[in-house]
Amino acid sequence: xxxxxxxxxxxxxxxxxxxxxxxxxxxxxxxxxxxxxxxxxxxxxxxxxxxxxxxxxxxxxxxxxxxxxxxxxxxxxxxxxxxxxxxxxxxxxxxxxxxxxxxxxxxxxxxxxxxxxxxxxxxxxxxxxxxxxxxxxxxxxxxxxxxxxxxxxxxxxxxxxxxxxxxxxxxxxxxxxxxxxxxxxxxxxxxxxxxxxxxxxxxxxxxxxxxxxxxxxxxxxxxxxxxxxxxxxxxxxxxxxxxxxxxxxxxxxxxxxxxxxxxxxxxxxxxxxxxxxxxxxxxxxxxxxxxxxxxxxxxxxxxxxxxxxxxxxxxxxx
Length: 318
Known about the structure:
CATH architecture of the largest domain: Sandwich
Number of domains: 3
Strand order of the largest sheet: 6-15-8-13
Shape: rod-shaped
Strand content: 25-35%
Low-confidence stretches: 169-176
Number of helices: 4
Oligomer: single chain
Distance between the termini: 64 Å
Radius of gyration: 34 Å
């Protein structure tokens, strides 16, 4: 009984010392950098607010770019319409002169030649494009564009027959996009956890991105794992090796804790903060959940302690 109390006292002292050292390190980092917030766990609320402001700034910058692209397109179209208007006025003048009774045949031939050249210019304007996109649609088009077999193109019906005008998305249409940016997520999960199993289920806001997971095993080895849908996308053992100095530890492989498996300790085998950036949703998996697991099935001895926090940045969804 006496030995049990001494162990508890030792564990309590170690925990308090670790927390004191952690606070001292945090203050020292703030003094050195001149920043109050150096990682998400320093002030989760303020850190998340800053990330949201950056995301909103990026969305507004994209909207400004879209408006600038629209303005450029309309300016080119307006210039073409102005030129076409001048050509039509000149064609009307030529028609009046051509039908005059006082004009001889040689002058009419000159008017005809000019008329044909103006027709060619009108056809060129009709077919003109801005960054690969036609400025004007055909009068008999029911829809301006529709899907093409090539996902990078749009298709417009050019006539009543089986011929089509293919519009490449490059240029104007390529930059005219609606980009939805999901707000980032930052949180602390089970700070000050123990040797028991810890599971944190995250319902994702977007289909892909990356999670930055800060894992601190303190002084005793801990097992950290990330499951994306049914896929294990991260599994590490951080901390000190076992007392025998082996470069691996044995972990339970079921809740019953009957069988074990070996997994190497991620070197260098020391305690302290580890940071991993883990991508999700960029290789075909479309799950909408992430699960963060520490000490799965209860993996470590009593007296252990750890903390962790994470930040999720989502890819823009177009």
